[in-house]
Amino acid sequence: MWEIIEANKRKSFFLLIGMGFCLITLGYALGEAFFPPEGGILGIALASSIWFIMSLVSFFSGDQILLSVSRAKEVTREIHPQLFNIVEEMKIAAHLPAMPRIFIMDEEAPNAFATGRKPERSAVAVTTGLLSRLNRDELQGVIAHEMSHILNRDILFMTLAGIMLGSIVLISDTFLRVRIRSSGSSPRYRARSSGSGQAQAIMFLVALLLLILAPIAARLLYFALSRRREYLADASGARLTRYPEGLASALQKIADSVVELPTANRVTAPMYIVNPFGARSMGFSGFLSTHPPVRERIQILRSMAGGASYASYQNAFASVMGRHVPIIPPSGLKDAGEISVRKPSVEEAKKQDAKSKARGLGDLTRVLNQFAFLTCVCGLRIKVPPDFKQPKIVCPKCLTSLQNPFQGRVQGGENLPQEYVRQSHNWESFSCRCGKLIQLSPAFSGSNVECTNCGQKILIENALAVPS
Questions:
Q1: CB 367 within 8 A of CB 426
Q2: I need a labelling partner for 329 at 20 to 30 A (CA). Which of 138, 209, 336, 459 fits?
Q3: Bond into 442 cis (ω within 30)
């Protein structure tokens, strides 16, 4: 749907201009209030410089900043094969030119977001809480929703908005805190506030007002431009998976969670598939909400009358909302033929008990925190923290001495292929010759892995096949 892509490019342009105007107005007012009589020009120059620098930063490095703020860690296929398979499936279904990088956030709250400036340089991040709560169809629905943001070029808009909004909030908060601490009673200001300094006093009050209103105005601009994107991503996600119930069920589980996401803030919140502030925000709707009401989104998806096309979503939207709002552009409604809804995955029959899920989540959390997993010949699993410095690890059960995988390079045989013999169905860790720690998940069943540090392929001998 080329209209969506073009519209999002226009939104990104207007967002930059609008946020730049907020910054420059704020800079002028602060300059006039604190550095008269030529402070306004100085404020405009400073704000323009900040706007230009932050535009460049948000365009070229905004995704890395947002991922870093969210404490997301990039993972390989060996760590979570199922997640990689689903992302790969949706990448093919969406005809994306490149595979997004995959990140996991070590957070109990279930949520996800996508970022990046273009499809060729994009990333998808999910929480460990999401992976532990959702089945394959639900996880596929969430990934399809995030892939739709990438496909529709929402990610450029969201990345630019997040960094620019953060700049305005940071400047406003900094000046307000400085002013509050100084209590507005500096001798310099009092001298200029008498007699002919009356205009200066008024300008100072205007500056304080702008310090409060500028972040609000920037946020309103962000919400006004991005309100429709979640509905569009839901529609595209349902079409990519051909199973609207998967996304609807995932949204229900995420919305039902009472756990808040501590790494989220008021700048990054709109990027997530569901408002990350938990129960505090579930009843908050309207123009100021970062997301459309979750209940409405779920109801629309479950009202698609057996079809998964854009037209089916538009009809369901009109039925649930009681009004015909053109959510889907004309090219989407001209989609050739109806897209039938597929059956649930066969894998849905496989259920994991709560204890196994908790154990799996705990192990994944340790992997993200760079723990190593060793399996002794006696069968005992040993979890080694990354700060363990001893060259050998003694098994507490059979007293066998094991090599510490964190201790440097593997010596010898540099010109020969490296091999690793897998010992169990559990997490296992070993070192590449370059010293990089390689993690194999219980679901990994491949015959080789590629070191992300040196690029060497490592053969996995007797790899135990586990259904993904």
A1: no
A2: 138
A3: no
